[in-house]
Design brief:
alpha+beta; six-stranded antiparallel β-sheet; two-stranded antiparallel sheet; about 20% helix
């Protein structure tokens, strides 16, 4: 590997198109990751969706940058937030993208937490 290569980014990009079963219950994860031209909404030059699904396909966890997250500015007013965000069960919150390796680490931490809460893993 050359010194200017980003191993975390290489790993994330290599996961594109992968679907993996993560427990005996049938929960599964899916990775969709592509390089794109950097934009103000996606300054890191990635379009990504990392998701955990229940056996019936319901999304339990998702890290993506497909749309802006609206954030409450003051009572009754909203402003557009960043595109990077986390879906956890039925909630959505902004996510501070740092780099590909941290994104993967944060995703797997959320996956483990949700599976533990659901009793799928000890």
């Amino acid at each position: 590997m050359t010194p200017d290569r980003d191993a975390g980014l290489d790993t994330l990009l290599d996961l594109h198109g992968q679907t993996l079963f993560v427990d005996d219950v049938g929960d599964w994860v899916k990775f969709v990751v592509r390089r794109i031209e950097a934009t103000p909404e996606r300054p890191h030059g990635l379009s990504y969706s990392l998701t955990l699904h229940a056996p019936d396909g319901a999304r339990l966890v998702g890290f993506d940058n497909a749309h802006a997250v609206r954030k409450r500015k003051r009572r009754g007013t909203w402003r557009r937030g960043k595109h990077d965000h986390l879906h956890r069960l039925r909630t959505i919150q902004p996510y501070e993208y740092q780099d590909a390796a941290t994104l993967l680490e944060d995703f797997w931490k959320e996956v483990d937490a949700v599976l533990k809460e659901g009793g799928s893993i000890p």
